[in-house]
Design goal:
eleven-stranded mixed beta sheet, two-stranded parallel sheet
Length: 338
């Protein structure tokens, strides 16, 4: 009982000390601001004036005791910031980092982040119009406890070969990655090959034209499900996928695709050389085209779905013939032979 009372007193004293310290040092984070709400504490660096992160966080690092150097979130939204310099944050750490709307940000030093590499769980790069250097992937590979990454409307054009590498160890907690934005034009080989626990990969509304043979390939076989979203990519169509691009992923996959510009009059055709190996490579694989379910039931390129009836069970959408027949109606594919 005495131990419990002492523990509660120490906890109360720590909280009181923290509050007093933060109130006493309102200027500590200038020109950034510090705020607390709903059991979270956040550092916000915004505005359009000069922002010297090294100087700010050098002061924070020197004045705060170690237990108080951990924050829930860092939000950077500064339009004058051009470079995230080396060791910007010292030993200050954040559970979440959001870099948003920094319209002049061009470069992240390879050692921009140091201590927080071991702590941060979520990183978002959003609406940074000049951020184009692909070294950002090397930087992200150092965050050993990352769980989710968001790229949204930056200026990155290419997802490089082996984008995520075990620089200081495998990123076993990384489960979600999103790429969104028209500047993204291509995917290299094996960008996600080391992320054995990745659960959701969302590559949507990009300008990617082709999916290479090793775009989604992993290094090791796994029973972990991976969901891949390919929505709103205007330049992707049925011919965009390389042979084996979907059949060597080495884990069960739920693949959800939207082919833009398809309609009742201009339906999708299902490429046998791509989709049949994908569906046969793992009986747990599933394909979904929720926004473009229409299919030409007289186009012999789709006849393989009649021959391989079991593959229809792996489709998460209903095939809708544009002649208004049911897909397995004997009046379909009348001029097609094996």
């Amino acid at each position: 009982m005495k131990i419990l009372v002492i523990t509660l007193l120490l906890t109360e004293l720590t909280v009181t000390y923290r509050c007093q310290l933060m109130q006493s040092y309102d200027y500590l984070f200038e020109p950034c601001i510090y705020q607390e709400s709903n059991n979270t504490n956040e550092v916000i660096c915004s505005g359009d004036g000069d922002l010297n992160l090294q100087t700010t966080f050098k002061i924070v690092d020197r004045r705060l005791p170690t237990p108080m150097k951990k924050f829930s979130r860092l939000y950077i939204n500064n339009t004058a910031l051009k470079i995230l310099p080396e060791n910007s944050f010292r030993d200050v750490t954040f559970d979440e980092i959001i870099i948003d709307g920094c319209k002049n940000l061009e470069l992240l030093h390879e050692k921009s982040f140091t201590a927080t590499n071991l702590i941060t769980k979520s990183i978002t790069f959003r609406n940074n119009q000049k951020l184009s250097n692909i070294s950002v992937f090397d930087i992200l590979s150092k965050f050993i406890n990352l769980e989710e990454i968001y790229f949204f409307n930056n200026n990155i054009k290419h997802i490089p070969d082996e984008a995520f590498k075990p620089v200081i160890g495998p990123q076993v907690k990384l489960e979600f990655i999103q790429f969104y934005g028209k500047t993204i034009e291509s995917i290299g080989n094996n960008p996600f090959a080391h992320l054995n626990n990745l659960k959701l990969l969302d590559i949507s509304h990009t300008s990617i034209k082709t999916i290479g043979e090793k775009a989604f390939e992993f290094n090791t076989v796994s029973d972990n499900y991976l969901t891949i979203y390919l929505f709103g990519n205007n330049l992707l169509n049925e011919t965009s996928f390389s042979v084996n691009s979907l059949s060597n992923i080495k884990r069960p996959v739920i693949l959800e695709i939207e082919f833009m510009g398809k309609s009742w009059e201009n339906p999708v055709y299902y490429r046998e050389d791509i989709l049949l190996p994908f569906l046969q490579s793992n009986p747990q694989n599933n394909l979904s085209m929720p926004f473009t379910p229409y299919i030409d039931c007289q186009d012999c390129r789709n006849y393989w779905l009649i021959i391989h009836q079991q593959c229809q069970q792996q489709l998460n959408h209903t095939l809708i013939c544009n002649n208004r027949n049911q897909f397995n109606d004997p009046g379909n594919f009348i001029d097609c032979t094996v």
